[in-house]
Amino acid sequence: MAACALRRGLLSTVSKYNKKHTLRILSSVADSSSGFEVFRPRVQCRACGLPGGVQQRRFMSSRSRPEGKILETVGMFEAVKQHGKYETGQLFLHSVFGYRGIVLFPWHARLYDRDITPPMAESKPEPPGAHGSKEVKGKTHTYYQVLIDTRDCPHISQRSQTEAVTFLANHDDSRALYAIPGLDYVSHEDILPYNSAEQIPIQHELFERFLTFNPAKSPPFTARDTLKAWQEKNHPWLELSDVHRETTENIRVTVIPFYMGMREAQNSHVYWWRYCIRLENMGNEVVQLRERHWRIFSLSGTLETVRGRGVVGREPVLSKEQPAFQYSSHVSLQAPSGHMWGTFRIERTDGSHFDVRIPPFSLESNKDDKAPPAGYTF
Length: 378
Fold this sequence. Notes:
Elements: H1 2-14, E1 24-30, E2 57-59, E3 69-77, E4 91-94, E5 100-113, E6 123-124, E7 136-148, H2 153-156, E8 166-168, E9 177-179, E10 183-187, E11 191-195, H3 207-210, E12 211-213, E13 221-223, H4 225-238, E14 242-248, E15 251-265, E16 268-281, E17 287-298, E18 303-309, E19 317-318, E20 324-333, E21 337-348, E22 353-364
């Protein structure tokens, strides 16, 4: 709720500013003597490793300050870049999920937006059996590899997974996965840039390993050699190449597939992918995701159908206050390529349902099948 409340304030405020300004980004901590709510988790956050204690809730300005709240300056907004890209070390707030983060490095992806009617040239054909027959033009779009501030993980864990970037474990168990907590992919338009006078403005175990403070630079955080080496070593498993997007009845679905590598199991090759999905409610009506229906086509000729309740054990509600939900999952094939597509069954508040299309996307393994990375040890 805190993140979404912040997001609403941010989106309405930042749009009024076209140049650098001095609007402060503020955080608050509840005063335990004031009688207002104090966040005291009973257990340690498994995703973030945060100990129990008072958690922070952020507000935009003193005008929105409830009585008893203590405001602390986090930083100052900068102009949103309409052209070009953000550099390594850029601090930002996520415009959808509201968390604080920092840019590690950019990715240049091909965005296939099915909401845009393209010319026939430079279009991507539909996979066999997919719904519709529209070809989609790919457009270059910038995404970023970022670190999430672990202080914000409790506020976003119900809306976005903080362990979404996973790898195949480098040992004999062909199904074992491991995750790097607090690593995310962020679209250019999700970035609300700001600056801070703090030398360690983001709390994450990799921040000081990857970045160093350099006041002579802008932004004042530059990449260490460890970040450059880690990026080069893990490039095949981190690389973001294709993004697919489609909107049905104001529900937009964005899919990003990633190839994870190949493993041998029972004298056969098993190819693994992870895919990240974001659902966004672009309208005013409150809806809830109830079911998923996947079709998975393998180059070996098999077509699998998967149905089930919700996604990753949840049936998220998408409202104007909390319009988005993001998750990651995995799929394996006994072939080096395939396709996936499907629908989400969405329920309205009156009990009626409609199906939202999941844009079809390819599962490709045309990368170097060397051993997957051994994690982020240095």
